[in-house]
Amino acid sequence: MKKSNSFSGRVLITGVGGFSGKYLSSYLHKEYPEAEVWGIDISEQSLSLSSINFIRSDITDYDNIKRAIARIQPDTIFHLAGTFDCGNLMSLYQVNAIGTEHLLRATTCLSKKIRIVLASSAAVYGTVLPKENPVKEEKKVSPVSHYGLSKLAMEMIGTMYGQRENNLEIIIARTFNLIGYGLSPLLLPGKLAKEIQELSKSQERKPLKVGNTNTIRDFIDVRDAVKALALLAIHAKENNAYNIGSGVGNKIKDLIKLFIDKVDPDIEVLTDRNLFKKSDPDIVTADISKIKNHTGWKPEIKLDKSVLDIIKLINRQV
Amino acid sequence: MKKSNSFSGRVLITGVGGFSGKYLSSYLHKEYPEAEVWGIDISEQSLSLSSINFIRSDITDYDNIKRAIARIQPDTIFHLAGTFDCGNLMSLYQVNAIGTEHLLRATTCLSKKIRIVLASSAAVYGTVLPKENPVKEEKKVSPVSHYGLSKLAMEMIGTMYGQRENNLEIIIARTFNLIGYGLSPLLLPGKLAKEIQELSKSQERKPLKVGNTNTIRDFIDVRDAVKALALLAIHAKENNAYNIGSGVGNKIKDLIKLFIDKVDPDIEVLTDRNLFKKSDPDIVTADISKIKNHTGWKPEIKLDKSVLDIIKLINRQV
């Protein structure tokens, strides 16, 4: 465990232009002004680059990523570059698994200690029985999606390197359901925010079509999540996995109600059984005692505040 | 568990032109003449096609594999198509993981029960502590190579389909170190057979360079292994993994001695520390009580006979 409460040297964020990457770079800029933050991403699109040193770099191209690592000489890496588009299986494995291999192989050329936080997902747990909740890090991993599989491959590649290379300190962060402004509409809260806004503006009074809304999930605000990543980089034990979640279960129907109440209470909700997913467990919540004990982190933003802030930010954009 | 002791309907072997595929097709032809055996492979090279119905098919091309499955209408599938070339990471995941996804997705279009044996590997276990031997199927999987990772991805894809699709009965076969005539020189016994033959014929008296020969491995003759695959297809419990090994540990140095004694006892053995591998466990042997109990299979060919038969067949070729 690091004694200090800060970052020494250079901090690299991969996938800095992504959802979590943007929040993390802002957070580090604000909370750790002494840190020299670098970011890489496959493109510069939609990046506000004022606060970070940016290098355009492709994680799937080993020579390219090796050059970037050699130039940046990072002391801490937040590896957030990844994809969750299950429509392109090759890309899932190429980016999430082989991209991680490229990154870690490139770091072995640096002759100094490097702390590396790998952004994984609760998807590695796969099927969760009701009695297994809240899920502990020791639960047997058993993904039921290619996304979960590719993230598990990422974790195992990290474990291989952590065991083999004395100078790499690998920390695995398993994030539960992220929520926040800017989340992809491929993920539930992002989809709800988008659809409910659209329905509210529509002339026709169409209902919101939903799947099984009795399932219970653990939503964690992205602002709490990036704070957890920073504290893991500083305080976590190497070769360990940590859950990042709120520790609280919320029914999907309650999340929907929060959005509708804040946007347009007249929107009707219609259950469509075609939207039910066979492999969806009834309940998945995080046991967060490990990250609390090892880093002092705790979630601070309640779900209704997350929803309220998303709506506010959407309205400001319009 | 099937009551019968045979195969009903059509049997498909993927990767039929590979090492195990050739032995399995010959074995089924001889021992189960009532079975209608089909084979697919990416090429027809080096196939003797007299005993099987062959369709050229590429497991990495979903439309292609779907057409083949629709035409063959298999009742039993031995999925042996795979690659172990760690020099091409993309190909490892594309063939072993995504290829399996393609095959299983294609089978969901058939409206009948299908038994599917997936050829996995002891590599999914990863690091094995001395006290964990002989390795049981329940041991926590934790690959330390991309090959092991890609095979674990294959297993998990099989598990996903097995849980989701009522008509698919998935059986996982984890084979330990195969030995037999025709084995790739990328794998140890194939490499030894090749190198020792070459040294024996060479004019110069060069020594055989070897790595750590005190490691203990479980070698299983490919003829015993394909018999195990056949019995698993008939008798195994679905959604179960089975070790296929001899249950016996042999030091690498003893395997080398067997080869040298039979080819040319004058060959000198030289230990080269550069050939030692960091992540090689000292001992890995299979617990084979599960496959014995569930199928009645037991290994019958001793290691010295495997070696003798390889030498005989090589000499016949010369």
Topology:
Two copies of one chain form a homodimer.
Chain A: E1 10-14, H1 19-31, E2 36-41, E3 53-56, H2 62-72, E4 76-79, H3 89-107, E5 114-121, H4 146-164, E6 168-175, E7 177-179, H5 188-201, E8 208-210, E9 216-217, E10 219-221, H6 222-235, E11 240-244, E12 250-251, H7 252-263, E13 269-271, H8 289-295, H9 303-317
Parallel strand pairs in A: 1-2, 1-4, 2-3, 4-5, 5-6, 6-11, 7-10, 8-13
Antiparallel strand pairs in A: 9-12
Protein name (chains A, B): NAD(P)-binding domain-containing protein
InterPro entries (chains A, B): NAD(P)-bd_dom (IPR016040), NAD(P)-bd_dom_sf (IPR036291)
Organism (chains A, B): marine sediment metagenome
Q: Major sheet of chain A: order of its strands?
A: 3-2-1-4-5-6-11
CATH architecture of the largest domain in chain A: 3-Layer(aba) Sandwich
Specify the number of helices of chain A: 9
Assembly status: homodimer
> Which consecutive residue ranges of chain A, at least 5 long each, have pLDDT under 50?
none
Mean pLDDT level of chain A: 93
Q: Helical proportion of chain A?
A: 25-40%
The most extensive interface, with participating residues per chain, is: A-B, 25 and 25 residues
Q: Note the gap between the termini of chain A.
A: 46 Å
Structural class of chain A: alpha/beta
